[in-house]
Amino acid sequence: MKKIKWNNSKLDYVMFNKKNSKSKGEAMWLISMYVIEMLSYMVVALPIYVLIRTIIIKRKKLPVNKLHELLLALFILYLVGLASQTIIPKWSLSVDGSTGKFYFDVYSINRLSSVNLIPLRTILNYFQVNEHVSGWSSVSLVNLLGNMFVFSPIGFFIPLLWSRMDSFKSILFIGFGVTCFIEGTQYFIGRSTDIDDIILNTIGVIIGYGVYLVWKILSVREKTVD
Question: For the ranges 35-39, 87-91, 131-135, which has the lowest average pLDDT?
């Protein structure tokens, strides 16, 4: 018998399967579904964002920097995609075949959700041998890297868009605050809450900031050479 726990908050994927050895394929399938769902929210949000942003610019008569506006749009759309996998509850919209009526359901209860308040417990479990999970190493790698890198754009875009936030202290505070807000919200919407997610997500934000610093140094050197 196989049980899959898929908390689409941040690739919290745990599979118990003693007979099936297709965990790598299933892990990649779950990642692809995760990305597709994010993109679907982003596509829907794009025209809404463009309309709202256009209204704000015209009403406040703001100067328009095309590159800044493009980066801002990408960042906002990324946040929408991130929210779709973290704090937006699961929902379904369909038609009742027997009555022909539309119905809309929001699910806030998940029997597979859990709470972990012990630091490093989940992370250390990823490095332990688990005979009940086929391909445990690949599943663990997906969880560790996914929980970090899905938050990396925050550390990259924020200092790029707002120079006053260009400091390690500011990025650390923002990253920690955002992840705490997400994990706290998930507790009330039927998703798993794990302090190790906060640790991994914050590390991911810092990694994103590191990428930004490397880009900043390289861009300065390029200008100096020119």
Answer: 131-135
